[in-house]
Specification:
The protein is an alpha+beta fold. The chain has 4 helices and 3 strands; from the N terminus they run αββααβα. The protein has a 3-stranded mixed β-sheet with strand order 1-2-3. β1 and β2 form a beta hairpin. The chain starts with 6 loop residues before the first helix and ends with a helix.
Length: 115
């Protein structure tokens, strides 16, 4: 059974979310085929070695290509993240990207409610 994340875990996750969002923002929308990419949440393992980054993509029809680009550039993004968190962390966590579909889900619910 998973226990609730500790204070350090939450602080590190928040810092990684902020830095990763800044890295993606600096790339610009053109780098992602005109899609707006945001880091909606980051969860980090208790040993701080793996960060799960939840990414939301607008418009959602570009999500698959954006996720592919993120996967292909995972090493470079981790390297850039390393420059940002070098002072705070000894080990830069591996990043796993997951698509955050809560916006699509909310849209779907809204459409159902309108019927």
């Amino acid at each position: 059974m998973d226990k609730a994340p500790g204070t350090r875990q939450l602080k590190v996750a928040r810092e990684i979310q902020k830095d990763l969002a800044e890295i993606l923002r600096s790339k610009g929308m053109a780098a992602f085929g005109g899609a707006m990419v945001t880091v909606s949440e980051v969860r980090i393992s208790p040993d701080l070695s793996v960060a799960k980054a939840y990414i939301s993509v607008f418009p959602s029809d570009k999500a698959k290509s954006v996720m592919n680009m993120l996967e292909e550039n995972k090493k470079a993004l981790r390297g850039e993240l390393g420059h940002h968190v070098a002072k705070q962390l000894r080990i830069v966590p591996n990043i796993d990207f997951y698509l955050d579909t809560t916006l699509d889900y909310a849209e779907h619910i809204e459409e159902l409610l309108k019927k």
